[in-house]
Amino acid sequence: MDDLIKIVNSLASDMMDEVIAIRRAIHAYPEIAFDEFKTSALIRQKLTAWGIHFQAGIATTGVVALIEGYNPEGPVIALRADMDALPIEEKNDAEYASTRPGYMHACGHDAHTAMVLGAGKIIHSLREYFSGKVMLIFQPSEEMYPGGAKVMLEEGLFGRIKPDILFAQHVLPELNAGTMGLRAGQYMASTDEFYIRVKGKGGHGATPHLNIDPIVIAAEIIMALQTLVSRNANPAMPTVISVGKMIADGMPNVIPDTVDMEGIIRTFDEIWRKELHQLVKETAKGIAKTSGGTSEVNIAHGYPALYNNPEITERVKNYAYTFWGKPNVAELPQRMTADDMAYFLKEVPGTYYRLGTGNPEKGIISNLHSSTFDIDEDTLLPGMAFLAYITLSELEREKK
User: Fold this and answer.
1) Fewer CB within a 10 Å sphere, N or C end of the chain?
2) Is the pLDDT reported for residue 186 higher than 90?
3) Of 262, 281, 300, which residue is a domain's last?
4) Three-state SS at 202
């Protein structure tokens, strides 16, 4: 197709009001992991109205749509959107703010869903011009273990049709609207959670010599875990261990019997990841034993590190130079955050890139997962258009 950028931008412009309305409807009724029933129903309603075939109910609320070109015997390109919200109380006063106390779309999944729907409608309207298939994956539960991606795969997501390439875009307020960013290779860390219970012997705070203080033991463990990062991790291998929660249910004059701690482990290398799990267990148990107490350590195995296929990412970067303009395409650093898109990318080569949604002039500056997070809705148009553009460009490339 000649002037593909002009075509997809025009089609995106025609449906911009509808996509904004979709995003706002999802934003106003946020649903957390595996509870995205109303969101899923809205997706199904739109796909039905547009004549796009789909399968529903995979991983409870997941929806998978399929668009066939004039010749379906060709490559398969997949687009993924996550649907779930977060247990955060929204503090924005926008007309589309959350109507559900304690829940909020603070990570942009409402926008992801709206843009993949928009891109799907654009691609569907151009189906007579391409050969192959386009799969739209609307995934539940990105924010909560075990992750909707893993469950969808376990339930046979790619059993009948396996994509050749998979794309996902994620909003990023650190990048301004009208820009995007990407990184080839290892981009996001693996993520695991640990739970440590330190057991001592409680008693009066004025007689610590008669007790085995689990608070002191827990404090030593916390400091030792930081030493694991600074003295055991290869400096060239990014590693984070953070304790985010500690409960010592005593009183000013009462030393408790137990202390509970929870935290995260993040890194990029699978071998080091396994070694680190063992070191965390040995460190906690060793310190507790030395002090006369005991510890129980449980580690919840989370998402793997996210790896962007270098060759595909390079092509997307070149598409981005043409679509956005080279000055508006950023090379991103590695991030210690995580995304279960990593499971999909272990099965299918592809890339996960960032869409700039910040706008300081409009006061849109809040970070992801904050109670005042929002996006510049003007980015929805180029966001869905670019998804359609890279998909159709890859289908055209494969045809050649």
Assistant:
1) C
2) yes
3) 300
4) coil
Is 212 in contact with 292 (CB distance < 8 Å)? Answer: yes
19-46, pLDDT tens digit by residue?
999 999 999 999 999 999 999 999 999 9
Sign of CA dihedral 199, 205, 210, 215: positive
Eight-state DSSP code of residue 360: G
Q: Are 115 and 384 in contact (CB under 8 A)?
A: yes
- Which range (77-81, 227-231, 308-312, 346-350) has the least confidence? 227-231
- Statement to judge: residues 64 and 146 lie in one domain: yes
Domain extent for 120: 4-187+306-399
Torsion of CA 379, 103, 265, 238, to 10 degrees: 20
Local structure of 380: helix, strand or coil: helix
What residues are labeled active site? 84, 142
* Domain co-membership, 210 together with 295: yes
- pTM of structure: 0.94
Asked if pLDDT for residue 376 goes beyond 80, the answer is yes
Sheet containing strand 350-358, edge to edge, reads 53-58, 62-68, 131-139, 71-82, 165-176, 350-358, 180-182, 329-331
Taking the CA atoms of 22, 24, 28 and 32 in sequence, report the sign of the dihedral they define.
positive
Distance of CA 228 to the CA centre of its chain: 27
Q: Where are the alpha helices (DSSP H) in 147-208?
A: 148-154
Average pLDDT, the chain: 97
Contacts of 182 (CB under 8 A, 6+ apart): 308, 313, 316, 317, 320, 329, 330, 331, 332, 351, 353, 354
Q: Which residue among 285, 300, 315 closes a domain?
A: 300
Helix 109-125, helix 37-50: angle, nearest 10: 10
Please tell me the total count of domains within the chain.
2
Q: Is 68 left (phi over 0), alpha (psi -120 to 50) or beta?
A: beta
* 50, HSE (Cβ side, Cα atoms, 13 Å): 25
pLDDT at position 1 over 70: no
Distance (Å, rounded) from C-alpha 239 to C-alpha 230? 9
Using CA atoms, how far apart are residues 221 and 279, in angstroms rounded to an integer?
Answer: 12
Residues 182 and 194 in one domain: no
Residue 284 shares a structural domain with residue 154? no
Residue 188 confidence (pLDDT) above 80: yes
Q: Do 175 and 197 fall within a single domain? A: no
